[in-house]
Amino acid sequence: MPALQLHPDRLLPSDPATRVIARQLYDVVRQLPILSPHGHVEASLLLDDEAFRDPASLLITPDHYVKRLLHANGVGLERLGVGVAEPTEDESRAIWRTLCAHWPVFRGTPVAYWFESELAEIFGVSERPSEASADTLYDQVAACLEQPEFRPRALFDRFGIEVLATTDDPADDLAAHASLAADPTFHGRVLPTFRPDRYLEPGRPGWRAAVESIADEPTSCAGFIAALAQRRAFFVDQGGTSADHSHVDLGSEPLSDAEAERIHRAAYDGRATADDATAYRRHLLFEMARMSTEDGLVMTLHPGIRRNHHRPTLERFGPDQGHDLPLAMEYTDALRPILERFGLHPDLHLVLFTVDETVFSREIAPLAGFYPSVYVGAPWWFLDAPDAIRRWRSAVTETVGFSKLSGFVDDTRAFCSIPARHDMARRLDAGYLAQLVVEHRLAEDEAHEAIRDLVDSPRRVFKL
Fold first, then answer.
1. Could you identify which of 88, 92, 148, 183 might form a hypothetical disulfide with 54, taking C-beta atoms 3.0 to 4.6 angstroms apart as the criterion?
2. What is the three-class DSSP state of 306?
3. Using CA of residue 91, residue 96, residue 100, residue 106, what is the dihedral sign?
4. What are the tens digits of pLDDT across the range 271-301?
5. Tens of pLDDT along 92-149?
6. Which helix (DSSP H) or strand (DSSP E) does residue 162 occupy?
7. Structure pTM?
8. How far, in Å, are 47, 146, 401 from residue 156 at the CA level?
9. If residue 244 lies in a helix (H) or strand (E), which one and from where to where?
10. Nearest to 32 by CA among 189, 191, 162, 166
């Protein structure tokens, strides 16, 4: 069987002199706690603390990175357990065999890096995934999952997670978060994140029902805005520190009160035009920024994704199945209404993410280089890969330095990939800073301080 070996210097610079410094820098942060300010692991996972059912439903089915590349190579989503609530042992083993048989398609991708790190460092696997090793690996991981030290809370502690933010609907009662916070046997922090996207999109199906689920006066814009503010306040009371937004663009032009009321009523009655719906969504985004200056929730923006690109897949399997695709983006003019009104406000933290690399140096870094409220979000989704992260560092650091960066964001549903993703970021930070040191652009003591600050920066940027 091909051996699975994780090189201790993986991702560090190949130049020997630079690698020595990078090793030292990596050692500084290698075991620091993980701060995860944006992700999609559910609080109920840690509250219930039940044993993971099987290797496939833990490591394959919830990870859209894994599913999308397999699908691109001819593997139907039904073969990966999508849509199956509780696969049988035979079905789970078949999913695992499918992944292992197709392992060569992941060569050179961050998926292979993360997955191999999970297998080796969490489950002690020493053989590379392959068709021949599939059953052996499955049995080894399945045997681990039967042990108490592989339950969610034990892994949470083992991974060194200090803070884990979830993603939550404004109507959620956050009962799992409250129970975890009150549980004296759980020592981590699991924070809710206010995610109001479906409430801000009057052109989408289900908008009226969403409004009615939180508003006592759903027929008026004023009543709806008041309801959103109340729900945000509830999230703050439950420990939430941020509100997350993802729309196709960042338009944020406010409407007059009369126009906002007109469009709200039209949308509620199903009469709003597409242009009306877009204008109202942009008005509501502006209102979210205003509320952030009042309640202190960090405003994170993850725009520019065409959700559910393949309609037949959406209709058969539902959302989040790997067919969300990037769009070209514009930030400077789109955010001007928010920044002109609130850009200097001391309580606003606006963290800008993108999957459009072209805007890092052209728009996002210059915005963060002037506005005290703006921070540069880490590479996200299609860009959270080693070479893309290196390009990002080169694109933004010369404009904003290190103080205006968000810190790493794992943005994952795959719980066991969290430590691998953060370790990757720390190794890349070490390599980048080491290069600055050998070029005599940064003193070694400054690099040691900077790498600690980079790992800890989510605490400051996301108000953790």
1. 92
2. strand
3. positive
4. 999 999 999 999 999 999 999 999 999 999 9
5. 999 999 999 999 999 999 999 999 999 999 999 999 999 999 999 999 999 999 999 9
6. strand 161-165
7. 0.96
8. 12, 16, 32
9. strand 242-245
10. 162
Residues in the chain: 464
Residues 321, 331 contacting (CB under 8 angstroms)? no
d(CA 441, CA 433): 9
Say whether pLDDT at 346 is over 80.
Answer: yes
Domains and CATH numbers, the chain: 51-150 (1.10.2020.10), 152-461 (3.20.20.140)
CB 23 within 8 A of CB 12: yes
Measured at the alpha carbon of residue 157, what is the angle toward residues 112 and 88, in degrees to the nearest 5?
Answer: 55
- The token pair at 13 is 């610079």
- Check residue 102 and report its DSSP letter: T
Buried residues in 342-379 as b, exposed as e (16+ CB within 10 A): bbebeebbbbbbbbbbebbbebbbbbbeebebbbbbbb
Closest CA relative to residue 70, chosen from 305, 422, 321, 371: 321
